[in-house]
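Interim report to the steering committee. The following record documents the input for Proteasome accessory factor C (332 residues).
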Amino acid sequence: MTRPAARTSADRLARLLNLVPYLLARPGIEVAEAAGDLGVTERQLREDLELLWVCGLPGYGPGDLIDMAFDGDRVTITYDAGIDRPLRLTPDEALALVVALRMLAETPGVANRDAVERALAKIENAAGDLVGAPVAVRLPGEGRRVQELRAAVERRRALRITYYTAARDESTERTIDPLRMLMVDGRAYVEAWCRRAEAVRLFRADRIDAVVELDEPAVVPPQARPHDLRQGVFRPSPDLPLITLRIGRGERWITEYYPCERVEVDGDRWVVSLRVTDLGWARRFVLGLGPDVTVVAPVELAAQVRAQATAALEAYATPVLSAGPAGPVTAR
């Protein structure tokens, strides 16, 4: 009985890598015999052979791609593109792989860490003396705070934190029950049940000003669900405020950095609309962009920006007295 063909991409990749050396050792082998040896159907083997025809070395022109010849139902590899050679890592490649696996093993919230550590142990064993190379692996934003949070998560302890919320420009104290540590876009987060908000929240590690591990276990309510972060931390939704800005050339990076609902070209300017967490954050965001930005909507945001900009200009215009060697002098 013929065994069923493998269905996953990983299985097919492994089969293709094995197929070329197999055929090189058996020139002119019948397709049916090869399929039986490899545990696939004849149809699957022919599909694999057709795929090999477009595989090869960079350049992908004549003389770069794997080639083969058919004689009836027999097949012979005539050019292998180097796949006949066993994979051997150079010292630099082996060291790079060790470093990458060490970093992956240290990434908060990574799935299947046991599998990563097993793979790392195998590579380190094969690398030999490279294991002791003077290389330190440190994640972006990694520090004492992240290590402290990770340890608390692993011990399943509740935490009392002082957290700075950038959107509201305020610091608050919260008691949280951690679910997991995450690394998103190079930043570490602790995802936890916030007892104050009575909901699951994400807390950036670099915005946690103080943390105290409580002498009580973390208790996560059954209704708590982790966030889906495949699209990033910020998830625009219709219930969030929508702002519209007219921007110059120097601010077009906004459309690449933030998810925009609408981008229109208006001469040499662009009109962009995007969702924000709240208008307080939007006000600080607009004021930090510079003079080549105009708030189109909402009117409330335009008024807030105008008021704060006016207050700043008035502060600069206020005379400041400075004392010299002979006492107070004129304003400057």
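The longest strand covers residues 170-184. The committee is asked to note this result when reviewing the revised timeline.
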